[in-house]
Amino acid sequence: MSRIAYVNGHYQNLRDAAVNVEDRGYQFADGIYEVCEIVDGKMVDFPRHMARMQRSLRELRMAEAMPLSSLKIVMQEVVRRNRIHYGIVYLQISRGVAHRDHGFPSPAVKPSLVVTAKSLNFAKNQAQAARGVKVITTAENRWPRVDIKTVGLLPNVLARQEARDKGAYEAWYVDAGGFVTEGASCNAWIITRDGKVVTRSAERGILSGITRAVLIDVLASLQLKLEERNFTPDEAYHAAEAFVSSASQIVMPVVSIDGNVIGNGKPGSIALRLREEFHRFSAIS
Ligand code: PDD
After folding, report:
1. Among 111, 161, 210, 248, which one is most buried in terms of CB atoms within 10 A?
2. Radius of gyration, CA atoms only, the chain
3. Is 155 in the pocket of ligand 1 (CB under 6 A)?
4. pLDDT tens digits for 38-67?
């Protein structure tokens, strides 16, 4: 079965789908994106992802590509046409197509909209979560507006490749103050030896993850103590547990950071519990 993408009003075979070479997303990374998990063919936490998308657009003074109700139909249709049972759906919105000039096109042009979806292997993800993953740390080198989910992901690409080159799954950024910000495509968490669940505040230095927000609800219901504060790699090396969160992985336990074994080197029980409980708290549509 061929994969189908939605590109500016058309559902097309992925191999034929293309954007204009003068698209500002391509020329300047002048665009935003969103990623939703799909479970049982349905989108997880769609309203929260759309609220973040609208915020990203506002921050970049970009127009909405279409009304939210229509966008939801397009995304559901891409999921349906690709017969995704478990996977992820991506959307990218750029400021549109215009002759190359750094300033915004005037008059404004229509934003470009691309929606794609892909299946993920549930059993493989579960097996990986049962083993846990390794992370490395790397110096933060992104722009200060990482709270906006832009398609400008070159530093994230390089960080992920650095992790791979070192035999790790993910890289955690460390800011100039010596504190962990987040991963190349996930939020970073540790659990202290006295059972406190720690993640950086979403006020500065990270993307405010939707999975992170739902996990905060899960923690409250499990009566686990949350601390939104900075932590250093050294604190992480000595933590009882560590994990990362994102729409595509939900909760992925971390068993090694910069070669330091976390806990007993196996996924921690709290991380696994959070992974298990997550979908009871997320909204499906
Ligand atoms: N990444 N931080 C960064 C830099 C991210 O790219 C992501 C998500 C997150 C977690 O956000 P959420 O829980 O809303 O997925 C944090 C997505 C999954 C991606 O780029 O594919």
Report:
1. 210
2. 19
3. no
4. 999 999 999 999 999 999 999 999 999 999
